[in-house]
């Protein structure tokens, strides 16, 4: 099923691509040659840019293509991963971790682990997270974006991978986080507009709002424990682990919070991200719910996005919606590349190879490492070609479960329990991958959420036991690193910003109540 672009579609698509590159290059020229400006955009980001860029980076081809395929295949429960993040991961970021990241002036998330435990804990995180970014984030996003371009236009998949990686790499490597965030705001607008157009076209063709309401009888957010993909037992550990990691301890998203003007903007940005996290998945899921009425026998669920675009949209809108897909791919890809360069530079190059490096040398290394990351990601994207009989979105969640239990353990116990020790944290981090492999080999039929939950709680127990057997840090060295109720309050000089409708807690309560309503109504 190849779709030939009309002149209008090609013009819209081409203008968008040129616009993103031009904006990224322009943003790169606003950078000063300092490490903080390149990696944290000079700490000048307002709340609306933080929240928007968090979701623009988060929503990518594995949502437009992968999550839409999962919803077509499994129904409304596919949205549980997205809304669960509002209740779990983003709450952990907002109310537990955020104050410590901002007040300590960290460049990267692993710096917390070094201050709390040791340089070895920081390096363990850096190793695990780089594997996750390269094998899960960058390679999968490239693959899924290329699949859609291949389905629609007939281009070779690896050619599409190369085009996407080169276009995104240009402005990401040149401009650092500032270019990433500026372009993400444009990409978010195009993504949402394209998603709304595709949703409207699909729902209208399927019979209107009544067709959507007809599917609501099957809107189950809590499925039996025997379900192979989304058992209710996932809420006992697997979903908690992945969500806390992804939203609260993930350099990929947290880097935007670190670039905030101040803590109030950081908090308000996360809450604004909650609202976007609630609405954007709806425009991805709703068309998939009614799509079986129109296309009941798709060979592969991940083809749905391309099929809807090819069959339901007129000339002009095809180019706009495909620009939305590329917007999702490029924003996610640029964020992942930038996070890799930040960690490689600040957590590996500077501590171990060039402690006395100037800002100029650090930025230069960041740019070179970005190019290497892109090359490795392109090579790894070919691995996904053999994993397409089920929605790739489920493979991604599975992959997160291999790397994240130890990371979530190190951060949660590190910030909530002052008795946790460096030895306990390292034991949890090192245990993650071997234990995941053992369980996967011994019980291959176990749902990946359950496997992740078991590994997560095992890591927690191991960390507690080892910590109780080893000597903790003196309390004086833990000042400003352990959570208490005072941590939720803004610094004194910012509390005037927190009054009335400017209070993030007010808006947080509204969106949290909305998500809880759906969970209770469709449990």
Low-confidence residue ranges:
none
By DSSP (H or I, 4+ residues per run), the number of helices equals 20
Structural class, judged by helices and strands?
mainly alpha
Cα shape: globular
Q: What is the rounded distance between the termini?
A: 38 Å
Could you give the order of the helices and strands? HHHHHHHHHHHHHHHHHHHH
Strand content: under 5%
Summary keywords:
about 525 residues, mainly alpha, membrane, Na/solute_symporter_CS, transmembrane helix, transmembrane, Na/solute_symporter
Descriptive account of the structure:
The chain crosses the membrane at residues 6-26, 47-71, 83-102, 123-146, 152-174, 186-212, 232-254, 275-295, 307-329, 368-386, 392-416, 423-442, 448-469, 505-522. It is found in: Membrane. This is Sodium/solute symporter. InterPro entries: Na/Glc_symporter_sf, Na/solute_symporter, Na/solute_symporter_CS. Belongs to the sodium:solute symporter (SSF) (TC 2.A.21) family. The protein is mainly alpha-helical. It has 20 helices and no strands. It has helices spanning 7-29, 35-40, 47-58, 61-74, 80-87, 89-103, 110-116, 119-153, 157-206, 209-215, 238-248, 251-258, 263-294, 304-312, 317-352, 359-381, 392-416, 422-442, 448-469, 504-521. Helix 9 crosses helix 15 (317-352) and helix 9 packs across helix 16 (359-381). The two termini are 38 Å apart.
């Amino acid at each position: 099923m190849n779709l030939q672009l009309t002149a209008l579609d090609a013009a819209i698509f081409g203008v968008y691509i040129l616009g993103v590159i031009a904006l990224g290059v322009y943003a790169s020229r606003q950078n000063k040659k300092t490490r903080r400006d390149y990696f944290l955009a000079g700490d000048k980001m307002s709340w609306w840019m933080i929240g928007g860029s968090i979701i623009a980076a988060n929503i990518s081809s594995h949502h437009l293509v992968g999550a839409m395929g999962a919803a077509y295949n499994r129904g409304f429960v596919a949205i549980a991963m997205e809304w669960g993040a509002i209740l779990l991961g983003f709450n952990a970021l907002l109310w537990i971790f955020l104050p410590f990241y901002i007040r300590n002036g960290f460049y990267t998330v692993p710096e917390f682990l070094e201050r709390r435990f040791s340089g070895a804990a920081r390096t363990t995180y850096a190793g695990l997270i780089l594997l996750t970014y390269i094998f899960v984030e960058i390679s999968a996003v490239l693959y899924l974006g290329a699949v859609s371009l291949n389905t629609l236009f007939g281009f070779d998949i690896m050619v599409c991978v190369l085009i996407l990686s080169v276009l995104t790499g240009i402005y990401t490597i040149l401009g650092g986080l500032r270019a990433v965030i500026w372009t993400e705001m444009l990409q978010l607008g195009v993504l949402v507009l394209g998603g709304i157009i595709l949703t409207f076209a699909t729902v209208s063709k399927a019979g209107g709002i009544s067709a959507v309401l007809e599917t609501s009888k099957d809107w189950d957010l809590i499925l039996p424990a025997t379900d192979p993909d989304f058992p209710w037992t996932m809420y006992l550990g697997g979903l908690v682990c992945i969500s806390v990691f992804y939203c609260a301890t993930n350099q990929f998203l947290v880097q935007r919070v670190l670039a905030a003007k101040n803590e109030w903007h950081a908090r308000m940005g996360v809450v604004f991200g909650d609202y976007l996290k609630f609405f954007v998945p709806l425009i991805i899921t709703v068309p998939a719910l009614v799509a079986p009425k129109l296309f009941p026998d798709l060979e592969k669920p991940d083809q749905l996005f391309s099929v809807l675009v090819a069959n339901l949209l007129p000339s002009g809108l095809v180019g706009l919606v495909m620009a939305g897909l590329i917007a999702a791919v490029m924003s996610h890809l640029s964020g992942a590349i930038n996070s890799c360069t930040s960690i490689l530079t600040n957590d590996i190059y500077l501590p171990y190879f060039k402690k006395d490096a100037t800002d100029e040398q650090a930025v230069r290394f960041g740019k070179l490492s970005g190019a290497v990351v892109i090359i490795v990601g392109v090579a790894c994207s070919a691995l996904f070609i053999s994993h397409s009989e089920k929605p790739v979105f489920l493979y991604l969640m599975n992959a997160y479960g291999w790397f994240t239990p130890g990371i979530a353990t190190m951060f949660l116990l590190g910030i909530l329990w002052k008795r946790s020790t460096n030895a306990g944290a390292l034991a949890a981090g090192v245990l993650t991958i071997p234990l995941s492999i053992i369980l996967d080999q011994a019980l291959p039929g176990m749902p990946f959420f359950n496997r992740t939950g078991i590994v997560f709680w095992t890591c927690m127990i191991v960390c507690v036991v080892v910590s109780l057997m080893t000597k903790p840090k003196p309390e004086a060295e833990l000042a400003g690193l352990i959570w208490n109720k005072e941590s939720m309050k803004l610094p004194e000089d910012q509390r005037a910003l927190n009054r009335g409708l400017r209070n993030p807690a007010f808006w947080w309560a509204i969106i949290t109540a909305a998500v809880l309503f759906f969970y209770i109504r469709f449990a």
